[in-house]
Write a structure and sequence with these properties.
The chain is α+β, with helices and mostly antiparallel strands. The protein has 29 helices and 31 strands. It is 53% helix and 21% strand.
Length: 1014
């Protein structure tokens, strides 16, 4: 007893099982995480180490190289890339995809802890981040107040407000940006110090043993036990001022005798502005497997409550990713709904029976909603990728149901009475073809679920959701559809329109049968048919050469970024004054601006301090009338040219996308070598040539002239004579020109930096005096010479070798042509021995991803062949069916060319999808031809009759899939850009395959299959 027969007999169980699955699907869908892209753990770790006031060369030598060497033996490392800049070291570690992220992170942390003593005292503690931590956060909230200054406001937020956001369920961690902080300053008077024969280095040594809270163990007496502790912590600036540092005779000399000790406010090294005013910004990042939509919703509820509690604080949500995610989800779901309705309409037209149409329509939600059960079990999330898989499946899940119900309908028309056996027989006739067609689709998608790299992130969940939907569609078609048909279908009088359509399609079937009979009457005609389609396939390769290729389609999420670069050494305050003019211009010139937020003095992604750089984030209102984001990018570039901003040396305007930080730029060329000056020469030469390529914009090189460096070279012998070490000399000099941190001090419940600085005017090094011994002041030039050097703004290294990175964007040009031109420029550029140039960037990433997808396609085709060979117990017949795939390629190439759609991972996926869809038509044809041959029918007659009987379900399944995906292809709503290329590829490919398959497959069958009935 097969599944269909059992389901009809046990119809109560059948209905209840599917009702349960649908109920569970609804329930589990409400429990799943929601985000724009799937959660993933990219195998990338980042080590950040601050080294205040150090030059890039010092950072490279004293921090970056030390850490690189330490972590080189850590588990799972594939590549190490580092950037040493002013006061900052950043090491990017790419792990092997098969590496365990947590294990590698722990191994790296252990190795860094082992060499902490080798790092300079002034260097901060290295911090290890996962790359997800640096992807833009889903929510940002700005704070301001008319009652408090920025120092008070920042402290108030940290003390009172932060906890409300930290305890939210989906929050991973929060980051507070902007505002200034207090520190405790010991500002020494040089003349008074000299009076007592003191130097800054001696003062630091005297302070180093103070400010401690030291556990001493236990003391027992009798039946009592006491904890012992030495409490020498400072409790206030006044307490520090009273500290005795020496005796002058019998008189105690205190810090207050040589210095003033006060709370000071540190000057801002980075500034955050929202809509033209300085603000403090709270950045909320979701935890792994967290729900972005819930995070934003809960955070907004907290803001709503806090507004009532603290009316003197101004709250402004400046970024809310949930709006874009919700609208993207709505777009995908609407497109799926429209596609389902269009598919049902086609079924209604072909069958002319409302009841049959409704029965098939039931199969869509039954299969799609039930899929959420397996999605929950496999820990998938609801995102545009997984929902895109469900939208893609809408047109596919009805195919099996159509085949079943069309055969039932045909048998009903031929039978005089309706009975149980008719429905069981009709379902059984197509069971083999349905199972084969579903299995071929499943094996196409299944390999995609096990891809590695970015392809696994973007396609893995889509593949699994389609597989789940197909599994349920097969079960629905062979159980629920026959059961519903048995209870609700029957003969009925057709309306005039449907009767006319039926007769019209019957005429089409007759014409097709006559034409096919003509083609296969003589073998040379069949050969000519194949030759014609071969020529058509070859001609379709012509547009392939003109189709551009990209990694991913650009998505308009209503946000773009303006990067402004001023001369090195420009202060944050000066940069701010120029930036404020740009902010005003953008707000006054453009409509639909929601908010403009600006970061000044902080790197765009990794947080390094760069006082000469500013990043303006422009977020647009959600309005259907607003222009596309690309229009804003173009017009803002023109605006910056016209403004002629003083001191502006470079600028970039970029569209911000959901894949920000995941995809490399279009132009990304590396020059490797040792000498920084030579590297810069080669890079600048390449930039000049790249700049002449049409469409290339925002070119930039990683190596730029930095601040001039005055390098002190100590005379070690003279230092040793006075027992004056380089460290003591460095501390004296640092206090003269900068703030010398000597530790931290706890006052009340707060922890503050404790710093020493001189109160004198900053003297020229040639006129500076130092005190190597008490009561002895000698000129600095006695102990040290100095020389002026030109430094680089940053030094980059890749796998322990220095390199320069050239980056740029491509606006309106062809990625294919860009690669050719860059390759030509590189090959014609001569470099000295020991130097080399290589192209990375989007082109390399695209090629690597396409290779991965190409392998997946080959595996899919092989698995499809295996399934069909097992089904037909033949090596030859699956080979014949496989020719439906190149027939689909014809449509894909012409479809992408005519719609001016680039070949991307998404459209490539459309080709893989078709490999599982189009073979179903061939399976239907050959399965019925074989059935007719088994009845003893003549060879050619069986080919014609079997093909004729299957032309209607082939057309029905093709048009339902095409119309099911049509809304995805033509939609221009928010978030639709990511799935549109896939739908375009499927629609055009399926169209050409459907037209050609009924002619090509019978011709091949005639030529290659032996007539066993002969």
């Amino acid at each position: 007893m097969n599944l269909s027969t059992l389901s009809i007999k046990r119809y109560v169980a059948t209905y209840l099982i599917f009702l349960t699955l649908v109920f569970l699907g609804f329930y589990f869908s409400s429990q799943m995480n929601v985000s724009y892209y799937p959660d993933f753990s990219a195998p990338v770790l980042i080590v950040m180490t601050p080294y205040r006031s150090a030059t890039p060369l010092q950072v490279e030598q004293n921090v970056t190289k030390v850490i690189e060497k330490a972590i080189s033996s850590s588990k799972g490392i594939d590549e190490i890339e580092s950037t040493s800049s002013d006061g900052f070291s950043l090491i990017l570690i790419r792990l092997k995809w098969e590496a365990d992220l947590k294990e590698s992170k722990e191994s790296i942390r252990e190795n860094i802890n082992f060499i902490m003593a080798q790092l300079p005292r002034e260097a901060g503690t290295p911090t290890i981040y996962e790359v997800q931590s640096l992807i833009p956060p889903p929510m940002e909230i700005a704070f301001s107040s008319d009652r408090m200054n920025d120092v008070e406001l920042k402290k108030f937020i940290k003390d009172k407000l932060l906890i409300y956001f930290q305890k939210l369920k989906d929050v991973g961690y929060v980051e507070l940006l902007g505002g200034r902080e207090k520190y405790v300053s010991i500002r020494v008077n040089k003349k008074r110090m000299e009076k007592y024969g003191l130097s800054v280095s001696r003062l630091v040594r005297l302070l180093s043993g103070d400010n401690i809270d030291y556990p001493l163990g236990f003391y027992k007496t009798g039946n009592k036990e006491f904890l012992l502790r030495l409490n020498a912590k400072f409790s206030s600036p006044e307490d520090i001022a009273e500290k005795v540092i020496m005796f002058a005779g019998t008189r105690a000399v205190r810090i207050k005798d040589i210095a003033s000790v006060n709370f000071k406010i540190r000057s801002a090294d980075s500034i955050y502005r929202v809509n033209g005013s300085r603000s403090i910004v709270l950045s909320l990042r979701k935890k792994s497997k967290g729900n972005s939509v819930n995070l934003c919703r809960d955070a907004k509820e907290v803001v709503k409550d806090l507004k009532k509690m603290y009316p003197f604080i101004n709250f402004k949500v400046i970024k809310d990713e949930s709006n874009f995610i919700n609208k993207s989800m709505k777009t995908v779901l609407n497109n799926a709904l429209y596609g389902g309705l269009l598919a049902a309409f086609i079924i209604f037209i072909f069958l002319g029976d409302l009841r049959s149409t409704l029965i098939i329509a039931v199969s869509i939600p039954s299969a799609i909603i039930s899929s959420f059960v397996l999605m929950k079990i496999f820990n998938l999330s609801i995102n545009t990728i997984s929902l895109g898989g469900l939208a893609l499946a809408v047109g596919m899940v009805v195919d099996a149901s159509i085949v079943v119900i069309e055969n039932i309908s045909r048998n009903l028309e031929l039978s005089e009475k309706k009975d149980f056996g008719l429905f069981a027989k009709a379902s059984k006739e197509v069971t083999s073809a349905v199972i084969a067609s579903i299995l071929t689709s499943i094996v196409v998608f299944l390999p995609l679920a096990f891809l590695k790299g970015l392809a696994s992130v973007l396609l893995g969940e889509l593949a699994l959701t389609v597989v789940f939907s197909l599994v349920f569609s097969g079960i629905v078609s062979l159980s629920l559809i026959p059961t519903l048909s048995y209870h609700f279908m029957g003969k009925q009088k057709r309306r005039v329109f449907f009767e006319l359509f039926k007769r019209g399609f019957s005429e089409v079937e007759k014409v097709y049968a006559k034409f096919l009979n003509y083609l296969i009457e003589k073998k040379r005609r069949a050969v000519f048919t194949l030759f014609v389609f071969f020529i058509i396939f070859v001609l379709s390769l012509i547009p392939l050469k003109k189709i551009d290729f990209i990694m991913l389609p650009k998505v308009d999420q209503g946000e773009y970024k303006v990067e402004l670069y001023f001369p090195v050494g420009t202060s944050v305050e000066t940069t701010e004054s120029f930036v404020s003019e740009v902010e005003k211009a953008i707000k006054s010139k453009f409509q639909f601006i929601d908010n403009v937020s600006t970061t000044i003095g902080k790197g765009s992604l990794f947080g390094e301090k760069v006082s000469n750089q500013a990043f303006i984030f422009v977020r647009l209102k959600d309005n259907s009338k607003r222009p596309h984001i690309s229009d804003y990018v173009k017009k803002t570039s023109i605006l910056l040219k016209e403004m002629n901003i003083p001191g502006l040396i470079n600028y970039k305007v970029k569209q911000i996308e959901p894949t920000e930080g995941m995809v490399r730029p279009a132009v990304d060329v590396n020059v490797y070598g040792d000498n920084l000056k030579k590297l810069r020469e080669i890079a600048e030469n390449l930039v000049d040539k790249f700049g002449k390529i049409k469409g290339v914009q925002n070119l930039d090189i990683s190596i730029k002239p930095g601040k001039q460096e005055l390098s002190f070279i100590p005379d070690r012998e003279k230092l040793a004579f006075y027992n004056y070490s380089p460290l003591f000399l460095a501390q004296d000099l640092k206090a003269e020109y900068d703030e010398l941190k000597v530790g931290k001090v706890n006052i009340g419940d707060e922890t503050y930096d404790l710093s020493v600085i001189t109160d004198s005017l900053k003297p020229s090094p040639s006129k500076l005096y130092v005190s190597p011994l008490p009561n002895l002041s000698l000129p600095l030039k006695l102990f040290s010479s100095y020389q002026l050097k030109e430094t680089s703004l940053q030094i980059k290294r890749f796998n322990f070798q220095r390199f320069v990175e050239i980056k740029g964007d491509l606006i309106g040009g062809s990625q294919r042509e860009l690669k050719k031109k860059i390759d030509k420029i590189i090959s014609n550029t001569k470099v000295p021995m020991g130097y080399r140039i290589s192209q990375r960037g989007a082109t390399k990433a695209i090629v690597d991803s396409f290779k991965t997808l190409g392998i997946a396609l080959m595996i899919a085709i092989f698995l499809v062949y295996v399934v069909m060979a097992s089904q037909f117990n033949s090596f030859l017949q699956p080979f014949i069916i496989s020719f439906t795939i190149p027939l689909a390629m014809i449509g894909i190439f012409w479809g992408l060319f005519l719609t001016e759609t680039p070949l991307s991972m998404n459209s490539f996926l459309g080709g893989i999808v078709l490999a599982g869809i189009v073979v179903n038509n061939g399976i239907l044809l050959i399965d019925f031809i074989n059935q007719k041959l088994e009845t003893g029918m003549g060879f050619k007659e069986a080919i014609v009759e079997g093909s004729k009987l299957r032309i209607r379900p082939i057309m029905m399944t093709a048009f339902t899939t095409i119309l099911g995906m049509l809304p995805l292809a033509i939609s221009r709503s928010i978030g639709s850009e990511s799935l549109s290329p896939l739908a375009i590829a499927v629609i055009f490919g399926l169209f050409t395959s459907t037209i050609a398959t009924p002619l090509v497959i019978p011709s091949l069958y005639l030529l290659l299959v032996k007539n066993k009935n002969k």
